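Researcher: I'd like a candidate sequence for this fold, 305 residues long. If you have to choose between options at a position, lean toward the conservative one.
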């Protein structure tokens, strides 16, 4: 997205080794670099290993909002051992004559945020990294540590009880910008990239027995997810619970009713989740209709653009 990526998107906690000439050029061009944090000192300054010299991110430059208190210091402490993005403010020498670099993560974040606000729109697809999971949604780094919210009901068509049923912290995903508020808060969506009902149902045929996850148990039947954007209804069965893995027989696939009828063969264990598959490969999306054309019910999303 506009040349900015989540922290650690490409390198994980791999050490970046820069030369002094590379660092000097990056300083002059205000190029955003990345390298892991090795320490957070008692004053909450971050120390970054640049390979040839040490880099220091002063506390006030550690993140947007640190100076005014809207971002807590735990946001700095938690970066130890992880990559951070930054620009180089200056290259100086310490009292022993050794060179070190003064860095700013905050300014890298501001460059990324300004780029998003000026050139990104609803419907644009971004690379994101899961940073935190709450019951109501997943928080995602969409560039240089800038965080956006992916609400739980926008994660997939198949309903989940908690985002941890779909994601793990540190996971790289793709997402769609749903809205950008005037104050810079960004909301994401995800389900539109996981395919329509027909695209998902096309991976299966009646008569197959496949693996799924029991998502809810109702009096009239049991909902079993067989891909993140596709769940079917199984006949009632005793001694099953939400979250269990299940082997299910596909009894019938009915596009005009957008239904898949299943029979649970067995249920066991927990912790399994179907693999995420991205059907949509473009850079932006204007609208998405999940439902088959001959189905009376429609699940539809329109992005503002």
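Model: Candidate sequence:
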């Amino acid at each position: 997205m506009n040349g900015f990526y989540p922290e650690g998107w490409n390198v994980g906690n791999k050490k970046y080794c820069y030369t002094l000439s590379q660092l000097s050029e990056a300083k002059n061009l205000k190029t955003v670099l990345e390298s892991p944090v090795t320490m957070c000192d008692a004053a909450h300054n971050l120390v970054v290993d640049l390979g040839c010299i040490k880099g220091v991110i002063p506390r006030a430059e550690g993140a947007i909002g640190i100076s005014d208190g809207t971002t807590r210091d735990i946001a700095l402490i938690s970066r130890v051992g992880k990559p951070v993005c930054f620009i180089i403010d200056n290259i100086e020498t310490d009292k022993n004559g050794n060179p070190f670099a003064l860095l700013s993560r905050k300014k890298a974040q501001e460059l990324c945020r300004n780029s998003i606000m000026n050139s990104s729109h609803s419907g644009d697809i971004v690379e994101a990294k899961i940073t935190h999971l709450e019951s109501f949604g997943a928080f995602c780094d969409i560039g240089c540590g800038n965080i956006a919210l992916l609400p739980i009901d926008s994660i997939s068509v198949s309903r989940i009880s908690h985002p941890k049923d779909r994601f793990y912290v540190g996971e790289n995903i793709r997402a769609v910008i749903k809205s950008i508020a005037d104050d810079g808060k960004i909301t994401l969506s995800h389900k539109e990239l996981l395919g329509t009902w027909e695209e998902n149902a096309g991976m299966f045929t009646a008569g197959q027995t496949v693996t799924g996850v029991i998502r809810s148990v109702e009096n009239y039947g049991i909902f079993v997810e067989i891909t993140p954007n596709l769940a079917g209804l199984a006949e009632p069965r005793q001694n099953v619970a939400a979250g269990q893995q299940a082997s299910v027989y596909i009894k019938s696939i009915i596009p005009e009713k957008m239904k898949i009828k299943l029979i649970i063969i067995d249920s066991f264990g927990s912790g399994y989740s179907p693999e995420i598959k991205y059907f949509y490969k473009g850079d932006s999306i204007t609208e998405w209709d999940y439902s088959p054309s001959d189905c009376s019910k429609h699940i539809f999303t329109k992005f503002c653009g």
